[in-house]
Give the backbone structure.
Amino acid sequence: MKRRLISLIVISLMVFSVFAVVTSVSVAYSMKLEDKNHTCHGWHRWLLKGAYRVEKSGWIFVHLEGSPFQIGFQHGYLLADNLNVSWSAAIHVYWSEKEFGDWWYVARDIARIYVWPKVPPEYKLEMLGIAVGVRAAGYKNWDLWDIVAFNAWADIDAYWDAYFEHQYPKTGYIPLPQMFHREKGCSAFIATGSATKNGEIVMAHNTWAGYAGDAYWNVIFHIKPKRGYEILYQSTGGCIWSGQDWYINSAGLMVCETTLPGMHVYNINGIPIFVRIRYAIQYTDNIDDFIKVMTYKGNGAYANEWLIGDAKTGEICSLQLGCYHWDIYRTFDGFIGSCNYPKGEGVRQETDYDWTDPTTSGYCRYVRWQQLCEMYYGQIDVELAKKMIADHYDVLTGEEKPSSRTICGHGENSPEWDYYPAGAYDGKVTSSSLVLENMGMWGRWGHPCGTPFYADEFLEEHPEYSWQLPYLRDLLSYDWTFFNKEGPMDSTSPTVIINAEIIAIDSTIGVKEQ
Protein backbone atom coordinates (compact mmCIF):
# COMPACT_ATOMS: atom_id res chain seq x y z
CA MET A 1 0.00 0.00 0.00
CA LYS A 2 2.85 2.36 0.86
CA ARG A 3 4.43 1.98 -2.58
CA ARG A 4 1.07 2.47 -4.29
CA LEU A 5 0.35 5.67 -2.37
CA ILE A 6 3.80 7.10 -2.95
CA SER A 7 3.64 6.15 -6.64
CA LEU A 8 0.34 7.97 -7.04
CA ILE A 9 1.79 11.09 -5.47
CA VAL A 10 4.94 10.91 -7.63
CA ILE A 11 2.88 10.42 -10.79
CA SER A 12 0.79 13.44 -9.86
CA LEU A 13 3.93 15.55 -9.50
CA MET A 14 5.27 14.36 -12.87
CA VAL A 15 2.24 15.54 -14.82
CA PHE A 16 2.16 19.07 -13.40
CA SER A 17 3.79 20.63 -16.46
CA VAL A 18 1.35 18.96 -18.85
CA PHE A 19 -1.58 19.90 -16.64
CA ALA A 20 -0.62 23.58 -16.70
CA VAL A 21 -1.39 23.70 -20.42
CA VAL A 22 -4.69 21.85 -19.92
CA THR A 23 -5.63 24.25 -17.15
CA SER A 24 -5.01 27.38 -19.22
CA VAL A 25 -7.16 26.01 -22.03
CA SER A 26 -9.91 25.02 -19.60
CA VAL A 27 -9.94 28.45 -17.98
CA ALA A 28 -10.20 30.23 -21.32
CA TYR A 29 -12.95 27.91 -22.58
CA SER A 30 -14.96 28.04 -19.34
CA MET A 31 -14.76 31.82 -19.05
CA LYS A 32 -15.85 32.15 -22.68
CA LEU A 33 -18.94 30.05 -21.96
CA GLU A 34 -19.60 32.01 -18.81
CA ASP A 35 -19.49 35.34 -20.61
CA LYS A 36 -22.16 34.14 -23.05
CA ASN A 37 -24.61 32.88 -20.46
CA HIS A 38 -25.11 33.86 -16.81
CA THR A 39 -28.14 31.65 -16.18
CA CYS A 40 -28.47 27.97 -15.40
CA HIS A 41 -28.89 26.52 -18.88
CA GLY A 42 -27.01 24.00 -21.01
CA TRP A 43 -23.55 23.34 -19.58
CA HIS A 44 -24.57 24.79 -16.20
CA ARG A 45 -27.41 22.28 -15.92
CA TRP A 46 -25.19 19.35 -16.85
CA LEU A 47 -22.45 20.33 -14.42
CA LEU A 48 -24.95 20.74 -11.57
CA LYS A 49 -26.50 17.32 -12.04
CA GLY A 50 -26.97 15.53 -8.72
CA ALA A 51 -25.83 18.45 -6.52
CA TYR A 52 -27.98 20.15 -3.90
CA ARG A 53 -27.89 22.48 -0.89
CA VAL A 54 -29.96 22.44 2.32
CA GLU A 55 -29.90 24.91 5.25
CA LYS A 56 -30.83 24.00 8.82
CA SER A 57 -30.03 25.19 12.35
CA GLY A 58 -27.27 27.56 11.26
CA TRP A 59 -25.61 24.97 8.99
CA ILE A 60 -25.41 24.72 5.22
CA PHE A 61 -25.26 21.17 3.85
CA VAL A 62 -24.13 20.57 0.27
CA HIS A 63 -23.92 17.34 -1.70
CA LEU A 64 -21.47 17.34 -4.63
CA GLU A 65 -20.69 14.53 -7.05
CA GLY A 66 -19.01 13.72 -10.34
CA SER A 67 -15.64 14.50 -11.93
CA PRO A 68 -13.17 16.83 -10.18
CA PHE A 69 -14.12 19.83 -12.34
CA GLN A 70 -17.83 19.05 -11.97
CA ILE A 71 -17.54 18.79 -8.17
CA GLY A 72 -15.68 22.09 -8.16
CA PHE A 73 -18.25 23.84 -10.33
CA GLN A 74 -21.11 22.60 -8.15
CA HIS A 75 -19.20 23.79 -5.11
CA GLY A 76 -18.55 27.27 -6.47
CA TYR A 77 -22.04 27.73 -7.89
CA LEU A 78 -24.06 26.47 -4.90
CA LEU A 79 -21.88 28.18 -2.29
CA ALA A 80 -21.01 31.41 -4.09
CA ASP A 81 -22.75 33.54 -1.45
CA ASN A 82 -21.06 31.78 1.48
CA LEU A 83 -17.70 31.78 -0.29
CA ASN A 84 -17.89 35.48 -1.03
CA VAL A 85 -18.70 36.57 2.52
CA SER A 86 -16.23 34.12 4.09
CA TRP A 87 -13.43 35.34 1.83
CA SER A 88 -14.35 38.98 2.43
CA ALA A 89 -14.35 38.42 6.19
CA ALA A 90 -10.95 36.73 6.06
CA ILE A 91 -9.49 39.59 4.03
CA HIS A 92 -10.94 42.18 6.40
CA VAL A 93 -9.95 40.49 9.66
CA TYR A 94 -6.79 38.55 8.87
CA TRP A 95 -5.15 40.04 5.80
CA SER A 96 -5.45 43.81 6.23
CA GLU A 97 -3.48 45.77 8.81
CA LYS A 98 -3.04 49.49 9.23
CA GLU A 99 0.73 49.26 9.64
CA PHE A 100 1.28 46.86 6.75
CA GLY A 101 -1.56 47.41 4.30
CA ASP A 102 -3.36 44.78 2.27
CA TRP A 103 -1.45 41.48 2.20
CA TRP A 104 -3.80 39.42 0.06
CA TYR A 105 -1.67 40.00 -3.03
CA VAL A 106 1.15 38.18 -1.21
CA ALA A 107 -1.09 35.20 -0.49
CA ARG A 108 -2.05 35.05 -4.17
CA ASP A 109 1.59 35.25 -5.26
CA ILE A 110 2.68 32.53 -2.83
CA ALA A 111 -0.20 30.33 -3.94
CA ARG A 112 0.77 30.72 -7.59
CA ILE A 113 4.54 30.41 -7.17
CA TYR A 114 4.98 27.87 -4.36
CA VAL A 115 1.70 26.03 -3.81
CA TRP A 116 0.20 25.44 -7.26
CA PRO A 117 3.14 23.37 -8.61
CA LYS A 118 2.69 20.96 -5.67
CA VAL A 119 -1.06 20.34 -6.17
CA PRO A 120 -2.10 17.10 -7.96
CA PRO A 121 -4.07 17.54 -11.21
CA GLU A 122 -7.30 16.23 -9.65
CA TYR A 123 -7.37 19.01 -7.09
CA LYS A 124 -6.24 21.62 -9.60
CA LEU A 125 -9.28 20.76 -11.67
CA GLU A 126 -11.54 20.92 -8.63
CA MET A 127 -10.27 24.38 -7.65
CA LEU A 128 -10.58 25.53 -11.25
CA GLY A 129 -14.17 24.32 -11.20
CA ILE A 130 -14.83 26.34 -8.05
CA ALA A 131 -13.45 29.48 -9.68
CA VAL A 132 -15.62 28.98 -12.78
CA GLY A 133 -18.68 28.07 -10.71
CA VAL A 134 -18.56 31.08 -8.44
CA ARG A 135 -18.11 33.43 -11.39
CA ALA A 136 -20.98 31.72 -13.21
CA ALA A 137 -23.10 32.45 -10.15
CA GLY A 138 -22.41 36.15 -10.61
CA TYR A 139 -19.47 36.82 -8.27
CA LYS A 140 -16.82 38.23 -10.60
CA ASN A 141 -14.40 39.32 -7.87
CA TRP A 142 -12.93 35.82 -7.55
CA ASP A 143 -10.40 34.10 -9.79
CA LEU A 144 -8.37 30.88 -9.69
CA TRP A 145 -5.49 32.32 -7.62
CA ASP A 146 -7.92 33.55 -4.99
CA ILE A 147 -9.29 30.02 -4.71
CA VAL A 148 -5.82 28.47 -4.44
CA ALA A 149 -4.70 31.04 -1.86
CA PHE A 150 -7.86 30.53 0.18
CA ASN A 151 -7.27 26.76 0.22
CA ALA A 152 -3.63 27.37 1.15
CA TRP A 153 -4.35 29.76 4.06
CA ALA A 154 -2.64 27.34 6.46
CA ASP A 155 0.33 26.83 4.13
CA ILE A 156 1.16 30.47 3.35
CA ASP A 157 3.41 30.96 6.40
CA ALA A 158 5.66 28.07 5.25
CA TYR A 159 6.67 30.10 2.19
CA TRP A 160 6.54 33.61 3.65
CA ASP A 161 10.26 34.16 4.22
CA ALA A 162 11.22 32.53 0.92
CA TYR A 163 8.82 34.78 -0.95
CA PHE A 164 10.14 38.01 0.54
CA GLU A 165 13.77 36.95 0.25
CA HIS A 166 13.13 36.42 -3.47
CA GLN A 167 10.95 39.48 -4.10
CA TYR A 168 12.63 41.98 -1.78
CA PRO A 169 16.11 40.68 -0.93
CA LYS A 170 17.29 43.99 0.57
CA THR A 171 14.36 44.70 2.87
CA GLY A 172 15.03 41.95 5.38
CA TYR A 173 12.45 39.95 7.26
CA ILE A 174 8.88 41.20 7.03
CA PRO A 175 6.65 39.94 9.87
CA LEU A 176 3.62 37.79 9.22
CA PRO A 177 0.30 39.64 9.17
CA GLN A 178 -2.33 39.34 11.86
CA MET A 179 -3.56 36.02 10.52
CA PHE A 180 -0.63 34.30 12.14
CA HIS A 181 -0.39 36.30 15.35
CA ARG A 182 -3.19 34.45 17.11
CA GLU A 183 -2.93 30.67 17.09
CA LYS A 184 -5.96 28.79 15.84
CA GLY A 185 -7.27 26.36 18.43
CA CYS A 186 -9.64 23.49 19.09
CA SER A 187 -10.67 21.03 21.78
CA ALA A 188 -11.24 17.36 20.91
CA PHE A 189 -11.17 13.80 22.18
CA ILE A 190 -11.46 10.27 20.85
CA ALA A 191 -12.16 7.18 22.94
CA THR A 192 -12.68 3.45 22.41
CA GLY A 193 -12.92 0.08 24.12
CA SER A 194 -13.42 0.13 27.89
CA ALA A 195 -13.47 3.95 27.89
CA THR A 196 -16.85 4.07 26.12
CA LYS A 197 -20.26 2.84 27.15
CA ASN A 198 -20.58 0.11 24.52
CA GLY A 199 -16.95 -0.29 23.42
CA GLU A 200 -17.30 1.65 20.17
CA ILE A 201 -15.29 4.71 19.11
CA VAL A 202 -16.69 8.09 20.18
CA MET A 203 -15.15 11.29 18.79
CA ALA A 204 -15.93 14.95 19.57
CA HIS A 205 -14.48 18.28 18.46
CA ASN A 206 -15.05 22.02 18.68
CA THR A 207 -13.27 24.66 16.57
CA TRP A 208 -11.71 27.81 18.03
CA ALA A 209 -11.06 30.96 16.02
CA GLY A 210 -12.17 34.58 15.73
CA TYR A 211 -15.93 34.98 15.41
CA ALA A 212 -15.62 37.65 12.73
CA GLY A 213 -13.08 35.90 10.52
CA ASP A 214 -14.37 32.33 10.87
CA ALA A 215 -18.10 32.62 11.58
CA TYR A 216 -18.88 31.51 8.03
CA TRP A 217 -17.27 28.06 8.24
CA ASN A 218 -20.68 26.52 8.77
CA VAL A 219 -20.79 24.23 5.72
CA ILE A 220 -21.07 20.44 5.90
CA PHE A 221 -19.82 18.95 2.63
CA HIS A 222 -20.66 15.50 1.32
CA ILE A 223 -18.59 14.70 -1.75
CA LYS A 224 -19.05 11.61 -3.91
CA PRO A 225 -16.04 11.59 -6.27
CA LYS A 226 -15.55 9.28 -9.22
CA ARG A 227 -12.32 8.02 -7.64
CA GLY A 228 -11.73 7.28 -3.98
CA TYR A 229 -14.09 7.19 -1.04
CA GLU A 230 -17.04 9.42 -0.29
CA ILE A 231 -16.06 12.11 2.21
CA LEU A 232 -17.95 14.32 4.64
CA TYR A 233 -16.27 17.35 6.19
CA GLN A 234 -16.95 20.74 7.75
CA SER A 235 -15.53 23.82 6.02
CA THR A 236 -16.55 26.99 4.18
CA GLY A 237 -17.27 27.83 0.57
CA GLY A 238 -14.17 27.65 -1.62
CA CYS A 239 -12.19 25.03 0.34
CA ILE A 240 -11.61 21.50 -0.94
CA TRP A 241 -10.50 20.47 2.56
CA SER A 242 -11.89 21.15 6.01
CA GLY A 243 -9.45 23.57 7.68
CA GLN A 244 -11.59 23.10 10.81
CA ASP A 245 -10.54 19.49 10.37
CA TRP A 246 -13.53 17.30 10.97
CA TYR A 247 -13.74 14.39 8.50
CA ILE A 248 -15.56 11.12 7.90
CA ASN A 249 -15.11 8.83 4.91
CA SER A 250 -17.16 5.94 3.58
CA ALA A 251 -14.35 3.49 4.42
CA GLY A 252 -14.95 4.14 8.13
CA LEU A 253 -12.17 6.61 8.93
CA MET A 254 -13.11 9.36 11.38
CA VAL A 255 -10.61 12.20 11.82
CA CYS A 256 -10.25 15.51 13.65
CA GLU A 257 -7.36 17.58 15.05
CA THR A 258 -6.21 20.43 17.26
CA THR A 259 -3.42 22.79 16.24
CA LEU A 260 0.00 22.49 17.86
CA PRO A 261 1.14 25.95 19.05
CA GLY A 262 4.48 27.63 18.44
CA MET A 263 5.48 25.37 15.53
CA HIS A 264 7.64 27.30 13.06
CA VAL A 265 9.80 24.67 11.30
CA TYR A 266 9.08 24.50 7.57
CA ASN A 267 10.18 22.72 4.42
CA ILE A 268 9.39 24.81 1.34
CA ASN A 269 9.85 21.73 -0.86
CA GLY A 270 7.19 19.81 1.07
CA ILE A 271 3.62 19.04 0.03
CA PRO A 272 0.99 21.49 1.33
CA ILE A 273 -1.12 20.35 4.27
CA PHE A 274 -4.43 20.83 2.44
CA VAL A 275 -3.24 18.47 -0.32
CA ARG A 276 -2.08 15.75 2.08
CA ILE A 277 -5.18 15.71 4.26
CA ARG A 278 -7.59 15.79 1.30
CA TYR A 279 -5.69 12.94 -0.36
CA ALA A 280 -5.53 10.94 2.88
CA ILE A 281 -9.24 11.18 3.63
CA GLN A 282 -10.24 10.45 0.03
CA TYR A 283 -7.91 7.54 -0.69
CA THR A 284 -7.05 5.70 2.53
CA ASP A 285 -9.14 3.23 4.51
CA ASN A 286 -6.94 2.46 7.52
CA ILE A 287 -4.77 4.25 10.07
CA ASP A 288 -1.44 2.93 8.70
CA ASP A 289 -1.99 4.40 5.25
CA PHE A 290 -3.45 7.62 6.61
CA ILE A 291 -0.24 8.17 8.59
CA LYS A 292 1.92 7.35 5.57
CA VAL A 293 0.24 10.03 3.48
CA MET A 294 0.28 12.67 6.21
CA THR A 295 3.96 12.16 7.03
CA TYR A 296 5.12 11.99 3.39
CA LYS A 297 7.15 15.11 2.52
CA GLY A 298 5.27 17.49 4.80
CA ASN A 299 5.93 21.23 4.58
CA GLY A 300 5.48 21.75 8.34
CA ALA A 301 2.57 24.17 7.96
CA TYR A 302 -0.43 23.91 10.28
CA ALA A 303 1.22 21.39 12.60
CA ASN A 304 -1.49 19.43 14.39
CA GLU A 305 -2.34 16.57 16.68
CA TRP A 306 -4.52 14.40 14.47
CA LEU A 307 -7.01 12.10 16.18
CA ILE A 308 -7.86 9.17 13.92
CA GLY A 309 -10.36 6.36 14.40
CA ASP A 310 -11.00 3.29 12.27
CA ALA A 311 -14.67 2.47 12.76
CA LYS A 312 -14.16 -0.99 11.23
CA THR A 313 -11.61 -2.15 13.82
CA GLY A 314 -12.20 0.09 16.85
CA GLU A 315 -8.59 1.35 16.86
CA ILE A 316 -7.82 4.99 17.62
CA CYS A 317 -4.62 6.98 17.11
CA SER A 318 -2.95 10.27 17.98
CA LEU A 319 -0.54 11.59 15.34
CA GLN A 320 1.25 14.71 16.58
CA LEU A 321 2.70 15.93 13.31
CA GLY A 322 5.45 18.51 12.95
CA CYS A 323 7.65 19.05 9.94
CA TYR A 324 10.49 16.59 10.52
CA HIS A 325 9.31 15.07 13.80
CA TRP A 326 6.12 13.34 14.82
CA ASP A 327 4.78 11.23 17.68
CA ILE A 328 2.31 8.37 17.31
CA TYR A 329 0.15 6.69 19.95
CA ARG A 330 -2.31 3.94 19.02
CA THR A 331 -4.72 1.84 21.06
CA PHE A 332 -7.84 -0.31 20.90
CA ASP A 333 -8.70 0.59 24.48
CA GLY A 334 -8.48 4.08 25.94
CA PHE A 335 -9.09 7.83 25.78
CA ILE A 336 -7.09 10.57 24.01
CA GLY A 337 -7.79 14.23 24.74
CA SER A 338 -6.42 16.98 22.49
CA CYS A 339 -6.28 20.74 23.09
CA ASN A 340 -3.41 22.56 21.32
CA TYR A 341 -0.87 21.02 23.69
CA PRO A 342 2.35 19.32 22.46
CA LYS A 343 2.65 16.06 24.41
CA GLY A 344 5.24 14.21 22.35
CA GLU A 345 9.03 14.45 22.62
CA GLY A 346 9.28 14.68 18.84
CA VAL A 347 7.08 17.71 18.24
CA ARG A 348 8.48 19.44 21.33
CA GLN A 349 11.74 19.73 19.39
CA GLU A 350 10.01 22.02 16.88
CA THR A 351 7.98 24.31 19.13
CA ASP A 352 8.73 27.43 21.16
CA TYR A 353 5.59 26.88 23.23
CA ASP A 354 6.21 26.47 26.98
CA TRP A 355 4.39 23.22 27.73
CA THR A 356 5.34 23.50 31.42
CA ASP A 357 3.40 26.73 32.02
CA PRO A 358 0.27 25.74 34.00
CA THR A 359 -1.54 28.99 33.18
CA THR A 360 -1.81 28.51 29.41
CA SER A 361 -5.03 27.50 27.71
CA GLY A 362 -3.52 24.32 26.29
CA TYR A 363 -2.08 23.16 29.62
CA CYS A 364 -5.33 23.82 31.51
CA ARG A 365 -7.45 21.97 28.98
CA TYR A 366 -4.95 19.10 28.92
CA VAL A 367 -5.44 18.70 32.67
CA ARG A 368 -9.20 19.00 32.29
CA TRP A 369 -9.31 16.24 29.68
CA GLN A 370 -7.53 13.94 32.14
CA GLN A 371 -10.10 14.83 34.79
CA LEU A 372 -13.03 14.24 32.42
CA CYS A 373 -11.51 10.92 31.34
CA GLU A 374 -11.34 9.79 34.96
CA MET A 375 -14.86 11.06 35.73
CA TYR A 376 -16.58 9.43 32.76
CA TYR A 377 -14.39 6.44 31.88
CA GLY A 378 -16.58 3.58 30.75
CA GLN A 379 -19.66 5.79 30.37
CA ILE A 380 -18.80 7.81 27.25
CA ASP A 381 -21.35 7.78 24.47
CA VAL A 382 -22.59 10.34 21.94
CA GLU A 383 -24.84 12.16 24.39
CA LEU A 384 -22.16 12.40 27.06
CA ALA A 385 -19.65 13.56 24.41
CA LYS A 386 -21.91 16.54 23.67
CA LYS A 387 -21.69 17.48 27.34
CA MET A 388 -17.92 16.96 27.54
CA ILE A 389 -17.16 19.14 24.51
CA ALA A 390 -19.23 21.93 26.13
CA ASP A 391 -17.41 21.78 29.50
CA HIS A 392 -16.83 25.09 31.35
CA TYR A 393 -14.67 24.05 34.31
CA ASP A 394 -11.52 26.19 34.63
CA VAL A 395 -8.81 24.15 36.37
CA LEU A 396 -6.72 27.26 37.08
CA THR A 397 -9.42 29.04 39.09
CA GLY A 398 -11.41 26.00 40.17
CA GLU A 399 -14.62 27.62 38.89
CA GLU A 400 -17.39 26.66 36.50
CA LYS A 401 -16.83 29.73 34.35
CA PRO A 402 -16.32 29.85 30.58
CA SER A 403 -13.00 31.34 29.54
CA SER A 404 -10.07 30.87 27.17
CA ARG A 405 -8.92 27.99 29.41
CA THR A 406 -12.09 25.87 29.28
CA ILE A 407 -12.88 23.03 26.87
CA CYS A 408 -15.65 25.18 25.41
CA GLY A 409 -13.60 28.33 24.83
CA HIS A 410 -14.91 31.86 25.35
CA GLY A 411 -12.20 34.43 24.61
CA GLU A 412 -14.78 37.20 24.81
CA ASN A 413 -14.95 36.53 28.57
CA SER A 414 -11.18 36.40 29.13
CA PRO A 415 -8.98 39.34 30.19
CA GLU A 416 -5.97 37.12 29.32
CA TRP A 417 -7.10 37.39 25.70
CA ASP A 418 -7.97 41.09 26.00
CA TYR A 419 -11.59 39.94 25.56
CA TYR A 420 -10.84 39.14 21.93
CA PRO A 421 -14.06 37.79 20.30
CA ALA A 422 -12.85 34.26 19.64
CA GLY A 423 -13.39 30.79 20.98
CA ALA A 424 -15.37 27.62 20.31
CA TYR A 425 -18.03 28.38 17.71
CA ASP A 426 -19.24 24.87 16.88
CA GLY A 427 -19.51 21.35 18.24
CA LYS A 428 -19.39 17.99 16.43
CA VAL A 429 -19.80 14.45 17.78
CA THR A 430 -19.89 11.04 16.13
CA SER A 431 -19.34 7.35 16.85
CA SER A 432 -18.12 4.37 14.88
CA SER A 433 -21.65 2.96 14.57
CA LEU A 434 -22.97 6.27 13.18
CA VAL A 435 -20.06 6.47 10.73
CA LEU A 436 -20.51 2.91 9.47
CA GLU A 437 -24.29 3.20 9.21
CA ASN A 438 -24.48 6.18 6.86
CA MET A 439 -21.58 8.55 7.62
CA GLY A 440 -23.58 10.07 10.47
CA MET A 441 -22.67 12.85 12.90
CA TRP A 442 -24.17 15.43 15.24
CA GLY A 443 -23.36 19.13 14.82
CA ARG A 444 -24.17 22.27 16.78
CA TRP A 445 -23.51 25.67 15.25
CA GLY A 446 -22.46 28.29 17.78
CA HIS A 447 -20.92 27.67 21.18
CA PRO A 448 -21.30 23.94 21.93
CA CYS A 449 -22.61 24.91 25.38
CA GLY A 450 -25.52 26.71 23.70
CA THR A 451 -24.66 30.17 25.05
CA PRO A 452 -25.38 32.81 22.39
CA PHE A 453 -22.93 35.58 21.49
CA TYR A 454 -24.55 38.91 20.58
CA ALA A 455 -22.24 41.18 18.60
CA ASP A 456 -24.02 44.44 19.48
CA GLU A 457 -23.93 43.76 23.22
CA PHE A 458 -20.28 42.74 23.03
CA LEU A 459 -19.26 45.86 21.09
CA GLU A 460 -21.03 48.13 23.57
CA GLU A 461 -18.62 46.79 26.22
CA HIS A 462 -15.62 46.45 23.90
CA PRO A 463 -15.79 49.11 21.17
CA GLU A 464 -12.10 48.54 20.48
CA TYR A 465 -13.16 45.62 18.30
CA SER A 466 -15.57 47.62 16.14
CA TRP A 467 -12.99 47.39 13.34
CA GLN A 468 -14.23 43.82 12.84
CA LEU A 469 -17.58 45.10 11.59
CA PRO A 470 -19.49 44.27 9.46
CA TYR A 471 -18.31 40.66 9.75
CA LEU A 472 -18.61 40.26 13.51
CA ARG A 473 -22.10 38.82 13.80
CA ASP A 474 -24.27 37.03 16.34
CA LEU A 475 -23.60 33.38 17.16
CA LEU A 476 -27.07 32.18 18.07
CA SER A 477 -28.01 29.17 20.16
CA TYR A 478 -29.10 26.31 17.90
CA ASP A 479 -30.03 22.76 18.81
CA TRP A 480 -27.80 19.80 18.05
CA THR A 481 -28.63 18.60 14.53
CA PHE A 482 -28.05 15.15 13.08
CA PHE A 483 -26.45 14.82 9.65
CA ASN A 484 -25.50 11.92 7.45
CA LYS A 485 -24.41 11.76 3.85
CA GLU A 486 -27.96 12.54 2.70
CA GLY A 487 -28.15 15.81 4.63
CA PRO A 488 -29.66 17.11 7.88
CA MET A 489 -32.12 14.79 9.57
CA ASP A 490 -35.11 15.50 11.80
CA SER A 491 -33.89 15.50 15.40
CA THR A 492 -36.76 13.24 16.53
CA SER A 493 -36.57 10.58 13.83
CA PRO A 494 -34.14 9.05 11.31
CA THR A 495 -36.20 10.38 8.38
CA VAL A 496 -34.55 12.72 5.89
CA ILE A 497 -36.17 16.16 5.84
CA ILE A 498 -38.24 16.17 2.67
CA ASN A 499 -39.69 19.69 2.73
CA ALA A 500 -36.43 21.49 2.08
CA GLU A 501 -37.57 22.65 -1.38
CA ILE A 502 -34.24 21.71 -2.95
CA ILE A 503 -34.02 23.00 -6.53
CA ALA A 504 -30.79 21.61 -7.92
CA ILE A 505 -31.31 21.38 -11.69
CA ASP A 506 -33.32 24.39 -12.78
CA SER A 507 -32.88 27.88 -14.13
CA THR A 508 -32.42 29.06 -10.56
CA ILE A 509 -30.65 27.47 -7.64
CA GLY A 510 -32.25 27.98 -4.27
CA VAL A 511 -33.21 26.56 -0.91
CA LYS A 512 -35.65 27.37 1.81
CA GLU A 513 -34.19 27.59 5.28
CA GLN A 514 -35.81 25.20 7.76
Observations:
- The chain is about 35% helix and 20% strand.
